[in-house]
Amino acid sequence: MYRDVQRDLEPPGGIHPLLAGRFSPYKFDPSAAIDDHSLGLLLEAARWAPSAGNSQPWGFFASRPGERGHERVVRHLAPSSARWATDAGLLVVTLARRYVGDTQLLYSEFADYDLGQAVAHLTVQAQAMGLAAHQFRAFDLEGLTEELRPNPGWAIVSMIALGKAAGEPPASRDRRSIADLGSAPWSMSE
Ligand SMILES: Cc1cc2nc3c(=O)[nH]c(=O)nc-3n(C[C@H](O)[C@H](O)[C@H](O)COP(=O)(O)O)c2cc1C
Q1: Which CATH number fits the domain that encloses residue 143?
Q2: Which atom of ligand 1 is nearest to the CA of 137?
Q3: What residues make up the domain containing 51?
């Protein structure tokens, strides 16, 4: 499928520096710990995100190196993410509440959408605190679900590694053009 992609050295000026400066690092400083206060602020940022009907269908399992929860999560990382995520000062497992208990009744049709927005808020808060976030899906979803055993209706969706970035942003970044954002959903242009 044709996609109109631009390759930029960095995001163009004009957007907020917190958004322009964000990137998903492949290297974290293993000596940079995240203290309780910082962890609280990150979760606070997620907590204040908007959600459909204020349903707040999100949940988080946060753990730091040295904590027992961290070992329980790290053992389910894929080799590709284990290379960098284990050095991060914080690992967060994200969960969405999709169903009411063990029924097929939707708790919210926007559960995953709202979780994504809460995570976006968390990542911007992290950036404001001099921390970087790398969201990822490279882990054994079944194994981690078995390990953490979320309540019925809840599903693990993704993970986030957070900490001090140890590497530089990639030399160039690919993004679809603004024109493509408007035209891609339709097959014919007027
Ligand atoms: C839901 C989600 C899943 C992702 N899964 C992975 C992953 O498994 N491995 C990985 O290296 N990066 C993963 N990423 C990071 C993206 O590859 C990254 O955000 C994208 O390439 C844009 O780069 P940037 O965040 O540095 O701008 C994921 C991001 C999101 C939001």
Answers
A1: 3.40.109.10
A2: 8
A3: 35-167
**Pocket, ligand 1, Cβ cutoff 6 A:** 23-24, 81, 135-138, 158, 173
Q: Phi, psi at residue 182, to the nearest 5°? A: -85, -25
Quick check: is 18 in a domain? no
**Burial tier of 73 (Cβ tally within 10 Å: 0-12, 13-18, 19+):** buried
Q: Which atom of ligand 1 is nearest to the CA of 170?
A: 26
Task: Identify whether 109 is part of a domain.
Answer: yes
Q: Ligand 1 pocket check: which of 134, 156, 157 to mutate, most ligand atoms within 8 Å of Cβ?
A: 134
Torsion of CA 88, 41, 120, 135, to 10 degrees: 10
124, pLDDT greater than 80: yes
53-103 pLDDT, tens digit per residue, is 999 999 999 999 999 999 999 999 999 999 999 999 999 999 999 999 999
Calculate how far, in angstroms, residue 82's C-alpha sits from the geometric centre of ligand 1. 14
